[in-house]
Design a protein that fits this description.
- The protein is an alpha+beta fold and about 400 residues long.
- It contains nine helices and nine strands.
- A hairpin with a 5-residue loop joins strand 8 and strand 9.
- The strands form three sheets. The protein has a five-stranded mixed beta sheet with strand order 4-6-7-9-8, with helices on one face.
- Among the domains are: about 100 residues; about 160 residues, Histidine kinase-like ATPase, C-terminal domain (Heat Shock Protein 90, 2-Layer Sandwich).
Length: about 400
């Protein structure tokens, strides 16, 4: 039996098939009119009940004048009650239509903004005027959502542009070196050529691995913080392993990495919820960033403390050049480095500019707070706060 090939998914989900129906404005209008008519009927019933107390037959007054009886009053009452209910129905329909239109007018603004967003315009905002109510709250929330979506789209566009540039550069350099070597076979230095090609190849490998790590962190489930519990001992082990793994690189740069000691009373409160592999990557990236972007003879301090509200705070503090708060705020963007968007000449570390971007993605996956602030006197202080 030949399997039926699956059809290609539509680029945009189609609307579900729905039977035609009345608009919300029409339904509200009918509701208003029905309510008005029901109130009129209620008054009519009350009037009918009161007329039951009028005696039957025609009554006469002392001077011989005519006084209507119950049947006369009922005849007139039913006639004018019908006319009144018809008038109420017309007023209910007309007034309900106008009132429903006025009440639903803000939804037209929301719908128009949603259509613009659907068509690709993310810069439009509703900016609902008037006082605060449910519809204004909906419009404000929609504006906030559009702002976040626009920010995410802009970040992805910058990331794609930077990634394509970063991935293209090593290959372009290798191609240029090979073309130069081919054009001058007599004067080429094979050893130097192979060394530079190996350097560019290593740069491509590091960048590709960093991009894969960033993709894994970005696609991590929103419940990453519920995957398991990292105990105090395991968290200490992660920190110690990161310090040990980077000790050689730190020693080569003349940087001293220390693991801050914690008081015994804090040892039992350092457990956190999360994925051990992702948290290990987070710690390694933070410590490596602190070592690389440091000064000769500088220091890096790694520690875990408990916040005032019982939260667990992982802190990595390093010395270094003075940093500006505005520049620090951009460090978690992809391909942003402490010295700008380009590598420092002669830098020994082959970096990708994705270290802190990966940290930020892991922090988002665990719903924890990541804070970067300049250290007084130079350097950077990074805090990762795990809620209690």
């Amino acid at each position: 039996m030949t399997p039926t090939p699956a059809s290609a998914p539509s680029p945009t989900p189609s609307r579900p098939a729905r039977a035609p129906g009345l608009s919300v404005r029409a339904r509200l209008t009918l509701s208003y009119a029905a309510f008005v008519v029901v109130v009129g009927l209620a008054f009519a019933v009350v009037g009918y009940l009161l007329l039951r107390f009028v005696p039957e037959g025609n009554a006469t007054v002392g001077d011989g004048g005519f006084a209507p009886g119950r049947s006369d009053l009922l005849e007139v009452f039913v006639k004018y009650t019908g006319i009144a209910l018809l008038v109420l129905a017309v007023i209910g329909l007309g007034g309900g239509w106008l009132l429903a239109g006025r009440m639903l007018a803000p939804l037209d603004r929301v719908t128009a903004a949603a259509r613009l967003a659907r068509d690709g315009s993310l810069s439009h905002r509703i900016r609902m005027p008037g006082r605060q109510d449910e519809l204004a709250e909906l419009a404000d929330t929609f504006d906030e959502m559009l702002g976040r979506v626009q920010l995410a789209v802009d970040e992805q566009r910058r990331f794609a542009a930077n990634a394509s540039h970063e991935l293209r550069t090593p290959h372009a350099v290798i191609r240029t070196m090979l073309e130069v070597a081919s054009a001058d076979p007599e004067g080429r230095d094979i050893e130097q050529l192979l060394s530079r090609i190996a350097e560019m190849n290593e740069r491509s490998i590091v960048l590709t691995e960093a991009l894969l790590t960033l993709a894994d962190a970005d696609t991590a489930t929103d419940t990453a913080s519920a995957r398991g519990t990292i105990t105090a001992a395991e968290l200490d082990g992660i920190l110690s392993a990161a310090v040990d793994d980077l000790s050689d690189a730190a020693a080569a740069k003349g940087v001293r990495v220390t693991l801050a000691a914690r008081e015994a009373t804090e040892a039992t409160v350092a457990g956190v919820h999360g994925d051990a592999a992702l948290l290990r990557q987070l710690v390694v990236n933070l410590v490596q960033n602190a070592v690389v972007h440091n000064i000769d003879g500088g220091t890096v301090t790694v520690g875990v403390t408990r916040g005032e509200d019982g939260a667990v705070v992982l802190e990595v503090v390093n010395t270094g050049a003075p940093l500006d708060e505005v520049a620090v705020a951009t460090f978690t963007e992809p391909f942003t480095r402490g010295a700008g968007r380009t590598r420092s000449p002669g830098a020994s570390h082959v970096g990708s500019g994705l270290g802190l971007a990966i940290v930020a993605s892991i922090a988002r996956a665990h719903a924890v707070e990541l804070t970067l602030v300049p250290r007084p006197g130079g350097g950077l202080c990074v805090r990762v706060t795990f809620p209690r």
